[in-house]
Amino acid sequence: MRQAAAVFIHGFNSGPDVWESFRHLLSQDSDISSEYDLRVFPYASSLANVHGRKRIPDIDTLALSLRTFLQVETKGYNRLAIVTHSQGGLIVQRYLEGMLADGKGNELARIRRIIMFACPNSGSDFKLQWRKLLGRAWRNPQEVELRPLAEGVAKAHRRV
What we know:
single chain, alpha/beta, Rossmann fold, 7 helices, globular
């Protein structure tokens, strides 16, 4: 096992497979592939709960899942790089906030890099009116966190 891992976290209404081409490209780079194991943090994200059997996890729940994933699945790595897209960046920020709030900031030392592609740090206006109209029917806690000026996102920014 290598001493470093890169953990990829997808965005809203997406899945781990979105990283396949990028991970394949990185695996072809001898500098990266000789140093990093490439891992993916999977989580449930969809527009709506169409089956009604499972709830859509909110960002705080996903941050706790990420904490468990990093404790268990990346236990043996001395160095981590975290690569996110969109909502994945919000999940990482909420994870960092939780670790700091719990007095576990020293456990973050092995995270050497966080790369966020298109993270909606101030929210997303993309189809916002449409999302708000459908929001009541969706009941999607992830979509609420993507709205501009979401309190949970602002709180994480203040702490981190």
